[in-house]
Amino acid sequence: MAQVRMRTAKGANASEIEKKIKRGNALRQSSPWHSSRVLLVLLLVTTCVCGASMWLYLSSADGDVTETLVRQAELVSPQPRVYAVPCSEDYEQHKRFPGCTPLKCGRAVTDGVVTRDEAQQLRRLAERGLALAGSEGGASILDLHSGALSMGKQFVNIYRYFGDQIDEVFTQEDFQLYRDVRRRIQETIAQTFDLDMDLMFLTKPTFFSRINSTEAKTQHDEYWHPHIDKVTYGSFDYTSLLYLTDYGTDFTGGRFIFMDQDGNRTVEPRTGRLSFFSSGSENLHRVERVTWGTRYAITVSFTCDHAHSITDPSLLPAA
Predict the structure, then answer these.
(1) H or E element: which one contains 159?
(2) For residue range 99-121, what is the model confidence (pLDDT) as tens digits?
(3) I want to staple 211 with a disulfide (CB 3.0 to 4.6 A). Which of 151, 189, 243, 295 is the partner?
(4) Whether residue 295 lies in the annotated active site
């Protein structure tokens, strides 16, 4: 501030101010307290910087979250915990299907649909499949329906690329469990939102994901951007995530965040936990960047439009 004043002062006043500044600096330099005061200031600055860094480290994951809907240590069972939200107008821009198109919207969480053992079996399935390749960045996917598998900076069809080797990676029991879990998820969503289950259809993309803290190499690795499923994928009407690992133990970061107008709300992943929601802009969301460890999950998506339906994957019997 003194330097600013010095530049704007005129004539004799400027000269006098400059002399006072020089005199004051000389007195401070000659004072026996100068070195101690400098050291004290440096110590204080260092302490503040270290303290601020530690605070940022501890609070970075929580900085954008105003409410945790369900914590990892909680057990939500047998009934889902439901959070109603007003439906957006997104569904008006698409053909409506009575008995399925959302009339009431919201988000829900339950730990009572898939057991921990079943989730761990599905995780092992994902680990075996993704061990065949994987992205160079931090996000890899395995889609058992289309066969899409991350490989480097692109995707390959796992069934065509690996051929008969697939029988050594997956079993009929793996695929049967996958189908059973999908059916239970569909039943739970239908019951929660008062839908006719027979009018809901599995849709794409439905896939396993593996996320870690590796730097993104392509846009496919940038999983953290906010988005709306119904806008990104017009066929989506209901989205679900089944977590296969534990927040805070297997990984940090990586929480699913609902971005509401009055604040952000999160669900902390837990092995076997199912989180599901209507897919419109009432549920704008993103995923935190994983900062440590590896996060496994399955995204299972449903549509009301049979034209966009896909079938369950199947492993052809060995010849």
Answers:
(1) helix 158-162
(2) 999 999 999 999 999 999 999 99
(3) 295
(4) yes
